[in-house]
Give the backbone structure.
Amino acid sequence: MLKQVGSKCKEGRTRQQDPVVKNFNDGVAIVAGGSGGIGSAICKALAASGSDVALTYRSRKDAADDVVTEIERHGRTALARQVDHTDSLAMKSFADDVAASFGRIHSVVYAAGPSIPMKFVNAITPPEWKQVFDVDVNGAFNVVWACLPHLKAGGGGAFAAVITAAVEKVPMRDICSAAPKAAIQMLMRGIALEEGRYGIRANCVSPGFIDAGLGAELIHETGIETWVDGIRQRLPMKKFGDAEDVAEAVVFLLSHRAKYITGQSLAVDGGLQL
């Protein structure tokens, strides 16, 4: 049985919020990986834009509880469950329960992914390669497989996958990030191509160096400050992004403002790909 946390409250909306609330008039957004640094920012941005949110988390219950609290502060309903995305039946059970609770799923965000080894290709072992693909690519597919029927049943909706700017410009030792995210990018394009006739869109957001989640761990790692500063100086904008930068791009692509945008990847990278 799906645990429900919080309750929907329609009180206290300001006039300034009304145009934003209209982005999501009914139903719920699912955020797979909603307890992470970027995933949590997406959950909060969706709630601020008028959407109820159902999120999955892997192990960080405390972080998921904090996200639920933030969603409630925006007067929205929050649902949370610990789900292993590599377990297709567990993911389907979650999606089915969310649809039963809310009546409609209007958006699905894949914002999850494993920790990755920062290694040269010649140092990556077959088990390491297999693990990142099993967790990330298969996990993303299971999210799509579980949620797509509900979007179609509800008359359409939107997918958004958080990938990486490295799919266009791969830094050394980052292939274990770029390769699986490139596969997820192709998955989103396939959905856009095949499901557009049913009112379903699918896009990607490609973060560069973001001071949140795994990116923050790298940026603030001790002993590599000179390397990190060199990366910052090579960026046209001379600064790293934050989780809110990514979240705003995701919410835009899910909203009616992007109703004729599908199959695209929006880089949120400060010009890294240039």
Notes: Residues 3-21 have pLDDT under 50 and may be disordered. The chain has one domain: 21-268. Strands lie at 4-5, 28-32, 52-57, 78-82, 105-110, 157-162, 200-207, 265-268.
